[in-house]
Amino acid sequence: MVKKFLLTFKFYTVLLIIACVLFASVFKVSASSRELRIMAGFLYNFSKYVQWPAEKFTNDKSPLIFCIISKDSFVSIVEETLKGKTTQGRRLITQSRKRTDDLKSCHLVFIGFREQESAGHVWKFLPGSGVLTVGRWGKTSNAKVIINLIKDKNKFKFAINTNAADQANLKIGSKLLKLAVQ
Amino acid sequence: MEQKTSIKEKLNIITLWITGAAFASAFITLVIFNKAMIQKELAWNLTILSKVMATNVDSSLVFLDKVSAHEILSSLSSNPSIVMGCLYDKEGNAFAAYLSKAVDNLSCSPNMDKSNSVTGTSYISHIQPVVLDSETVGFLEILIELKLFDFQVQKFALVTFIIFLCTLLIVFLLSKRLNKIIIFPIFSLLNLIKKVSNRKNYSLRAEKFDNDEIGDLIDEFNIMLSQIEKHEKDLEFQIKERTQAEEESSKTKEKLQIYSAELERSNDALRDFASIASHDLQEPLRKISMFGDRLNDYAEVLDERGQDYLKRMIGASERMNILILDLLEFTRVTSAGMKFETVDLNQIISEVFSDLEILIDQTEGKVEMKGALPILPADKLQMRQLFQNLIGNSLKFHKEGEPPLIQISSLLTPKGNWEIKLRDNGIGFDIKYLNRILKPFQRLHTREKFKGSGMGLAICQKIILRHGGTLTAISSHEQGSTFIIVLPNKQPAKEESESLY
């Protein structure tokens, strides 16, 4: 009898734990989704303050291509954010890429948090190519991107590697530089 | 009693009112215009500020950097009239705010329905969309307190008011001085008019100051004064003249009355004398005549010389009797005249003819009537006597050996008098003796040649004069005579003019 009671108790305890875990995971997912939206917005807004070299576009109407090397969900979020929007009169196109792909046709390349190891590869090919690289490194000092997104006390900030921007032949707007973390 | 306001005061009041009204309207216009201008400028500045601000805050807004947004917004504190600056995201949620320390009851309220500029009682708000690459990413609202602006307007109004008050004072003082230009001549004219009316001295003249309307007025007034002066003098002269004339005329009248009375008296006396004398003279004359006749019975006793004396005495007494009778007749023309009545002269003439029938037959005379004689107011008996005398004369003074011819005619003169002409072919007379023969006892011939007392024509003259007419004659020696009688067709209302003749 007691044994049965204990079994039953264990069962409910397990159930409760599972529920808690599930609840927690759900909560975590929703929170990160908000962050992803903010990040997508940042990507879009960065494009407003950056001036690409003219040779990166075939004509005035040619689109601005956002290449995302990240989880599928972020690609779709970015796609959703950029939908129907323009920057400097150009359509915005979101493309999901792999780190091994040729990224020289991209205007903006986002390297996800988990793809950091591949950043070195990307880094190697991109100087002078007019590609704005955006990533999420914990520390800015060794970041292998031009704009590094930093999360500080639940707030996103960013740091700009102006040398890298110069190498990439990109002009970063003063307002953006002003907001950037040193 | 009505308060008397002088022209001077009126002019001052008018000037003040006009200037005051002009200044008031200018003041109100200026203040309103100034307020509108300041308000417009304020709104304009606010718009510019908002636009500049909006372009600065776009990056802070899109990268959710509240710190930098605050920094930018806090620069609004440099303008003390800006009390609030709010930055909203594109959903209208407040993102960052600047609030002036002076104001604590304000807060950024997400109300995107506000129009671009809202002017409240004490605030102006301007909402500026924050546009990034032609996309509205948020809104910036700046709120300005109007306290400073109101103060500015008040300051302007006060300064303008003080300036206008000073100007008004200057205008008042100036107008007081300038009004003298108009008022002084009027006052001097008024003083002169008072002097003239008080002293009745029209020789005074107003002084002319300028060639304006008042100058004209003064000129006209002076002309009027001269005219009055002239009239006054004329009038005085006329009055003097008239007074003199009246005095003279009254003197003359008195004299005339005295003369008239004297004349009447002497006339009466004369008449009385003539009548009495005639009567009294007749009495001894009758005795002379009577005793002459009785003495005639003793004619044989007298010698031839005595008889001649007696004869001559009787003849003289007879003549004397005729003279006296004629004199009586003459005086009776006025003293015993009858009232005037309507007399038909044709009838009178025919009566005279029958009276003189014997004489006409004796002289084989002829009387021609050339047309009818008038009917007029007259004394019937005297008319008869008049024509009897005249026709008798014509028969008496006929030429020897030539029967008398008498023509009688009449006509109405333009003056309304009857002119009756008696023309004969007699001996006539020298016209220079006309006046003489019209007087009593005057004769041109010896009584031996023509009998008579010499009273006939005098009586005629007197009768005609009594009737208001005239008697004249045209004649020359041996050429016959024409006697012209003029008698009025109408007698004056006073039936019998009191003749002095």
Describe the structure.
- The complex is a heterodimer of chains A (182) and B (501).
- In chain A, 45% of the residues lie in helices and 21% in strands.
- Chain A is of the alpha/beta class and 182 residues long.
- In chain A, strands 3-4-2-5-6-7-8 form a seven-stranded mixed beta sheet, sandwiched between helices.
- In chain A, helix 3 (116-125) links the parallel strand 5 (108-111) and strand 6.
- Chain A is elongated.
- The termini of chain A are far apart.
- Chain B has 501 residues and is α+β, with helices and mostly antiparallel strands.
- Chain B has three domains: 18-153, Beta-Lactamase (2-Layer Sandwich), CATH 3.30.450.20; 184-333, no CATH class; 339-497, 2-Layer Sandwich (Heat Shock Protein 90), CATH 3.30.565.
- In chain B, 57% of the residues lie in helices and 16% in strands.
- Chain B has a five-stranded antiparallel beta sheet with strand order 2-1-5-4-3. Chain B has a five-stranded mixed beta sheet with strand order 7-9-10-12-11. A two-stranded antiparallel ribbon of chain B has the order 6-8.
- In chain B, a hairpin with a 5-residue loop joins strand 11 and strand 12.
- Mean pLDDT of chain B is 85; it is low at 112-118 and 495-501.
- The interface between A and B is medium-sized, with 19 and 12 residues.
